[in-house]
Specification:
Layout: H1 6-21, H2 28-45, H3 51-60, H4 89-92, H5 95-113, H6 116-125, H7 127-133, H8 140-150
Helix pairs in contact: 2-3, 2-5, 3-8, 5-6, 6-7, 6-8
């Protein structure tokens, strides 16, 4: 019989993942490179100034190779392929595609919700969850996500 606690290993794995995300690599250069693309997508899809920028910053901290092992979300915009079956892994990891796709998707969520904060909540929690349960039942993760995107 083993005398180890599997939760310790999960905790270590999460710690290693967090360290790898916060390594000495700085994505500030990426932020400068992607800002014009984000601003162009915002204008193209009618997104308020800075909103898509803050959403992408919250999603990936401008790391184009970001992968969330828990959800499977990929790239700058943390696209979840299981919820976006027409997107390939290569597309999700392509900054140009991901930025435009995130802008288009956020604008679609806004058209459905008629509120940018609700659109941001739906981006994080899923439009189905938002529509079925309402924003008052949003999980703490989503509440914190909205606060982070809106500063």
């Amino acid at each position: 019989m083993n005398d180890y606690n599997p939760l310790i290993f999960v905790g270590l794995a999460v710690g290693v993942l967090m360290l790898s995300k916060k390594s000495s690599v700085s994505y500030s250069e990426n932020e400068k490179v992607y800002r014009p693309l984000i601003d162009a997508a915002s204008k193209k899809y009618g997104i308020p100034d800075g909103l898509l920028y803050r959403l992408i910053k919250t999603e990936s901290a401008f790391n184009p190779n970001a992968v969330n092992p828990k959800s499977g979300a990929l790239g700058l915009a943390q696209i979840m392929l299981r919820w976006h079956p027409n997107v390939t892994r290569e597309q999700a990891l392509n900054p140009n595609f991901a930025i435009d796709y995130a802008g288009k998707y956020l604008a679609e969520l806004y058209k459905t919700t008629k509120d940018w904060r609700l659109a941001v909540a739906a981006y994080n929690w899923g439009i189905g969850n938002l529509q079925k349960q309402g924003i008052v039942k949003a999980p703490l993760e989503t509440v914190n996500y909205i606060k982070k995107v809106y500063g």
